[in-house]
Design a protein that fits this description.
Blueprint: H1 27-45, E1 57-62, H2 68-79, E2 83-88, H3 90-93, H4 102-112, E3 115-120, H5 125-132, E4 137-142, H6 148-162, E5 169-173, H7 180-189, E6 196-201, E7 216-220, H8 226-233, E8 237-240, H9 261-265, E9 272-274, H10 295-314
Parallel strand pairs: 1-2, 1-3, 3-4, 5-6, 5-8, 6-7, 8-9
The structure holds N-carbamoyl-L-aspartate.
N-carbamoyl-L-aspartate binds near residues 181, 242, 244 and 276.
């Protein structure tokens, strides 16, 4: 489907737009995706088939590893009756191995599909791809920058479990410097009133200057003191992420930390613990059964519903 002249903001109209950054969305645009995602959820849970994307082909190409984002985009297209062309590991299996540029590869996929879902290790790669082709690009992660469909599913999860997106204290625990999931959550939740943000990290991994605003607080600590710090802040949301070793020079292990049942014992029963996954060792598995842990129970499933909604909106199959 040809894309509309790149009007950066969504502004109530998704059809034909690239999805590059959460900055394109207003709270009303988020709400539109959430209400369509709730309909998708009903459909999936009822095992109903759909022909919403019939006749459409979506190219899915990931230059970085992925389990959830890749599988849920693929599942989303197919559950809506569309088909996919899938490239995982294009550095080994496609002409990228011969040295083809991102722009050329995008033009090739454009010839065979109606939209492209792209994950790539470089900041700004999704925008470059969008500039190279006339079909919509879904940014599924551009290096340590953004991952908008993850942000959408994160906000949808918060709304589902806590019932609000405002008046929240959010603690980002891990690596706010490189972790695109934190960048997206921070940018999106900054658009709602009275939210306060705490970036809890070891020294050297603080949020980049260009992403900050006045509601953001650095809490640079020795991560051995994490439990005490969380007790002091008493956040409503503990948003946890792994230390992304692929973006860190030197030994990433020195930054490691752990949240365990002991950490949770001293915190309110009303909070939630989020993680986009994969988890390495930053949350112990005994936390998974705590009702406050929403990563397996809510986030991974919501990723499917959100991506179904986003695809159908951008491909113009729902008004
Ligand atoms: C995240 C990502 O790729 O940004 N994973 C995901 O999409 N579920 C987080 C990560 O890589 O750690």
């Amino acid at each position: 489907m040809p894309k509309v002249d790149s009007n950066y903001r969504i502004n109530g109209s998704f059809k034909g737009k690239d999805i590059i950054s959460v900055d394109q969305f207003s709270p009303k645009d988020f709400q539109k995706v959430f209400s369509e995602a709730s309909k998708m959820k009903k459909q999936v849970l009822a095992h109903k088939s759909s022909t919403l994307l019939s006749g459409l082909v979506v190219g899915i190409i990931f230059y970085e590893p992925s389990t959830r984002t890749f599988s849920s985009f693929s599942s989303a297209v197919k559950r809506l009756g569309g088909i996919t062309i899938e490239h995982q590991n294009p550095l080994q299996t496609s002409s990228v191995a011969k040295g083809e540029t991102l722009e050329d590869t995008m033009k090739v996929l454009e010839a065979y599909s109606d939209a492209i879902v792209l994950r790539h290790p470089e900041v700004g790669s999704a925008k470059r791809a969008a500039d190279a082709v006339d079909i919509p690009i879904f940014n599924a992660g551009d290096g340590p920058n953004q991952h908008p469909s993850q942000t959408l599913l994160d906000l949808y999860t918060i709304l589902e479990v806590l019932g609000r997106l405002n008046n929240l204290k959010i603690a980002f625990v891990g690596d706010p410097l490189h972790y695109r999931v934190f960048h997206g959550q921070f940018a999106a939740l900054s658009g709602y009133s009275n939210n306060q943000f705490y970036g809890i990290s070891p020294k050297g991994l603080e949020m980049p200057k260009e992403y900050r605003n006045k509601d953001y607080n650095d809490v640079t600590i020795d991560m051995k003191n994490l439990d005490k710090t969380l007790q002091e802040i008493q956040p409503d949301i503990i948003s946890v992420g792994r230390i992304p070793k692929e973006y860190i020079q030197g030994d990433a292990k020195k930054y490691s930390f752990t949240i365990n049942v002991g950490t949770l014992k001293k915190l309110s029963s009303k909070i939630i613990i989020m993680h986009p996954l994969p988890r390495i060792d930053e949350i112990t598995t005994d936390v998974d059964n705590d009702p406050r842990a929403v990563y397996f129970k809510h986030q991974i499933r919501n990723g499917l519903y959100i991506r179904m909604a986003l695809l159908a909106l951008v491909l113009g199959r729902i008004p």
